[in-house]
Amino acid sequence: MNKQALIDTRRRISPFVHNTPVFTSHLLDDLAGAKLSFKCENFQKMGAFKMRGATNAIMQLSKDQQERGVVTHSSGNFAQALSLAARNLGVTAYIVMPNNAPKVKKDAVLGYGGLITLCEPTIKAREQAAANLVAEKGATFIHPSNDLNVILGNATVAMELLEVHPDLNFLISPVGGGGLIAGTALAAHYFAPQCLVIGGEPMAVDDAFRSLQSGQIETNLTTHTIADGLRTQLGDINFPILQQHLDHIIRVEEDDIVSAMRLIWERLKIVVEPSSAVAFAAVLKNKAYFKDKKVGIILSGGNVDLDTLKFS
């Protein structure tokens, strides 16, 4: 892994992804006591940062591999990202989804051209169904977060933000499966070594926080958080990156997440999903730590189910 790998990745995927805007707000600056810059991946194609990693992972496959297609298991943003990225590149995407996935998510995958295989809503069933497709179709499995090419694609979020604001003191990203925070940490390491990278994580699913403490990948016994995109856990590829380059993780409560999301909707006038609000919630919870500093906040996506979303 080196700086050139990130530069090459940025050049490779730039025709297929948006360079998303950076928003600011004097009111939110005053509220936080810091200078905030919000990198708005809710304006990314398919509505989330995962378009970047999915595109890079497919582009790094050989022509023969691309002809046989790609496989993933996901009920959320990566299912949509891989489907759209594959369609853009002329590749078939086989998507394993649990049979209880919301219809709106299945419809989105189908709309992007993904071929859905339904399975029982367990990790074991999802992994088995994906393995069956790999064996049957000869397709390549792409993990949503624990894949180096996915991580490198995700790193371009922070690379773009640091081009606009190279003097940031802190970069904050939500932590779920680890693909975004690992890419963010690599980008800061190579392009802004003075910038500390911090993760925001729900207290209810704080496996990454505990993993960094114990030195091994921890799991969660429950997934009871409004930040549904952060219910996954770290992997053996992204965890060592976090151990080496992540400063620390701030945990936030559910009420903190809801309050931060409401502020973003109200003051920035944009739609973000609960997972996106976790990074901002971490700043609001630790105002003294960030006081008078320049803080970059990654808003990871804006795919919300408006039928179930509640602010209180």
Short summary of the structure?
The chain is α/β, with parallel strands linked by helices and 312 residues long. Helix content is 47%, strand content 15%.
Summarize the helices and strands and which ones pair or pack.
Elements: H1 3-13, E1 22-23, H2 26-32, E2 35-40, H3 50-59, H4 63-68, E3 70-73, H5 77-88, E4 93-98, H6 103-111, E5 115-119, H7 123-137, E6 140-141, H8 148-164, E7 170-174, H9 179-191, E8 196-202, H10 207-214, H11 238-245, E9 248-252, H12 254-268, H13 274-285, H14 287-290, E10 294-299
Parallel strand pairs: 2-10, 3-4, 3-6, 4-5, 7-8, 7-10, 8-9
Antiparallel strand pairs: 1-2
Helix pairs in contact: 1-8, 3-5, 3-8, 5-6, 8-9, 9-11, 12-13
Any descriptors?
4-stranded parallel beta sheet; Rossmann fold; alpha/beta; globular; 312 residues; 2 domains; 10 strands; single chain
> Biggest β-sheet, characterized?
6 strands, mixed
Say how many strands there are. Answer: 10
Q: Which residues sit in consecutive blocks of at least 5 with pLDDT less than 50?
A: none
- Determine the N-to-C terminus distance: 44 Å
Number of helices: 14
Which percent range fits the helix content? 40-55%
Strand order across the largest sheet: 1-2-10-7-8-9
Strand percent estimate: 15-25%
Shape: globular
CATH architecture of the largest domain: 3-Layer(aba) Sandwich
How many individual domains? 2
Mean pLDDT: 94
Content-based structural category: alpha/beta
| CATH topology description of the largest domain | Rossmann fold
Protein name: Pyridoxal-phosphate dependent enzyme
Organism: Gelidibacter gilvus
InterPro entries: TrpB-like_PALP (IPR001926), TrpB-like_PALP_sf (IPR036052)
Cofactor: pyridoxal 5'-phosphate
